[in-house]
Amino acid sequence: MSQSRAIILLSGGLDSATVLAMAKARGLDCHTVGFDYGQKHRSELKAARRIADALSDHPHKVIRIDLGSIGGSALTSDDIDVPITGVADDGIPVTYVPARNTVFLSIALGYGEVIGARHLFIGANAVDYSGYPDCRPAFIEQFESLANVATAAVDGGERWVIEAPLMTMSKSDIVTTGNALGVDYSMTVSCYQADEEGAACGACDACRLRRKGFLDAGLYDPTKYRRGISPKI
Amino acid sequence: MSQSRAIILLSGGLDSATVLAMAKARGLDCHTVGFDYGQKHRSELKAARRIADALSDHPHKVIRIDLGSIGGSALTSDDIDVPITGVADDGIPVTYVPARNTVFLSIALGYGEVIGARHLFIGANAVDYSGYPDCRPAFIEQFESLANVATAAVDGGERWVIEAPLMTMSKSDIVTTGNALGVDYSMTVSCYQADEEGAACGACDACRLRRKGFLDAGLYDPTKYRRGISPKI
Question: Residue B229 and which of A208, B106, B156, B218 are 20 to 30 A apart at CA?
Answer without folding.
Answer: B218
